[in-house]
Hints:
Its cofactor is Mo-molybdopterin. This protein is mainly beta.
Amino acid sequence: MPHEGPDAPAIVKPLPPELFAVHGSCAETRWEALRDAGYHVPAERFFVRNHTRTPIVDAASWRLELHGSGLRNPRSFGYEELLALPAVTRDVLIECAGNGRRFFTDQQHQEVTGTPWRLGAAGVARWRGVPLAAVLDLAGITPQAVDVMPRGLDPAYVADGVDHGRVRRPLPVAKALDDVILAYEMNGEPLPPDHGHPVRLVVPSWIGLASVKWVGDIEVSAEPLSSPWTTEFYRMYGGQHPPQGGPPLTVTGIKSAFELPWEAPLAAGRTHVLHGRSWSGRGRITSVEVSTDAGATWHPACLHGGPHLAGAWTRWHVAWSPRGTGPQVLLARAADETGATQPLESPYNELGYLFDAVVRHPVRVINV
Ligand SMILES: Nc1nc2c(c(=O)[nH]1)N[C@H]1C(S)=C(S)[C@@H](COP(=O)(O)O)O[C@H]1N2
Ligand SMILES: [Mo]
């Protein structure tokens, strides 16, 4: 199949049904596919969120253009030039702002629009690249610079007959200079096409949209910048929110997921070790509790060793001996270092962003 032109597939890598649920141009990781994965999600299992489709970009001829009123020394970088700069390596979670969206409908009976993700639009990888700050410094970022806007090389995003241009989203200069990476490696390999080859942004703790893939240019401006991705999309509408929408979304929320299939069959009369992962854009996970009786009682899960990274996830497990047979529901709720925890209901917004409530994960206890 061709990878360019009108018949090109939206996603290049294979999407076997045991690993992914496909939603149009996007692919959701199945949580059971993480049971035998390590801390990092292999690139072959990492979710894909494409506004249009994966472009094939040739690293050898690719250039990153830095331009705009906030630079003293506008310039460009080739792939080899970036690789020659001092590198950083960091475990960072990328999560779509719409992850969990379908639970607004399934659990809260609210109507929302957008891709109906369960919890599989999130993943941690080990990213290696150049700090964005270093590249901005080489381009002579001035004290007057306020916003930094990377733009992707994928096709323009057209929705309902409106051409919104190529995917781009300004970052305030404070975030751009803090911990953002211009990444060229994912889990020790060059970035695969679907995840931004040759270079993408990795913006820790922020909604996935900020981590612009296939970056081709970056505008650095002494005036505030905007794009449809800050004025129209990725804001909260409806419910308690102002008519023009809340502020552009930045930091992601707090979530937990079991590494089990939806409606997993579990054998009666045995003890099962339930595994899962929790994460929060606000900081480290400090505790996770599991309930198997609809929230009447909660049991602490055992958090797996090592430092519980901010900007990534914490793995955990808990033992469970189901009583009886038939459909049952598993609940997990995490707390982070800011004291935030997962509520039983998530505040409504029309586009279904930042679902953070406890997810009711159905299982079937069966006689074997
Ligand atoms: N250029 C470009 N960058 C993009 C997107 C896109 O469609 N085009 N999607 C964004 C969104 S909404 C998310 S959630 C993440 C998903 O990253 P992944 O596909 O590597 O998992 O990429 C972001 N970067
Ligand atoms: Mo996203």
